[in-house]
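Re: the request from the purification team.
They wanted to know what the chain is likely to look like in 3D before they choose a buffer screen. I agreed to run a prediction and write the result into the notebook, where they can find it.
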Amino acid sequence: MKVAYFTESLLPHVDGVSLTIARLFETLLADGEDFRIYSPFQPPPEIPWSTRVVPVRYVRFPLYPAYRVSLPFLSRIAGDLDEFDPDLIHVVSPTPMAVWAQRFGRQRGIPVVSSFHTHFVSYFRYYRVRRLESAGWRFLRWFYGRCVRVYAPSWSIIHELEQHGIENAELWSRGIDGYAFSPAKRDERLRAEVGASDTIPILLMVSRLVKEKDLADLVAIDQLLHERGVAFEFVLVGDGPLRHELEHALPRAHFAGHQSGDELARWYASADVFVFPSTTETLGNVVLEALASGIPAVVTDRGGPQDLVIDGETGYIVSGNDATAMADRLEMLLRDSDARREMGAAARESATARSWRHINARLLASYHDVANAYHHM
């Protein structure tokens, strides 16, 4: 089977999307599937599938210069795509390049599928343009309506898409590398550096520091816990435009900046409780990484993270934007080391049951179903 991918997120640019599809490409290589990638990013040569990437011209996205918007109509890729002659086209995000690829597929009789990674419409309320939400959903209904399948990472997101008239969604969940993220990477020296001890646990959040992560709730939670006299050290891993503002609002917190690889894994494993107040996640890979590292997570009941946490067993699920409810659950865990250990062990077990190999094999089976059905129409 030949699959053509169109994506604006690709290594060496690192985000949840690029890491997810990198795992998918590893599965494709292992299974001997043929694929080609069209992207404005070019991975380094040590990436096994880097030779399959066809560069696309681009402009930088004004609000986030690290992101690139492709210009396929200026890149002369139609000829390359005709030569490749794919059985299926997978567009990763609703971008101008994806719309171009959809049109190409319709003209050539090639089925097009997509995946839902980022809840852009939910971001509008954080940037005072909530009036654009209805227009955003209209565009998504049009865009995803031009796809045979839409692969969403959680049942919560599938239900939300259905509520907005997008009814062709199917689950493509996420896996975790239980070796990369493991309690075995706990580092007592790292804990000591931030003042943690057997009686002073670490409360951790890993995230981009941006408005749409509900970081105002995080500030309120920190204030509530300190007012109640809870002993803990708060560590934030990640960077973003709100870092300076948060450093001022959370003067007692430790800001570790952007971390990756083994350094990131050490922070997870060295923490005791994970907090994630975001209400805009399609899944929440950081929650899965925390659970695999053996620490319980407290998340909200909006979006994908609630699908990862078993309430009362591997962490807690509380109402979105309810700082008091989240502080209540965090206080209990921060004060009770036995509960943390018990939940952490259950968290590790639940997370490592998610095999990338199994999850991506189901996606490939769906690809074959789509292609076979489409070509027999």
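For the purification team: DSSP finds 14 helices and 15 strands in the chain.
Please add any questions underneath this entry.
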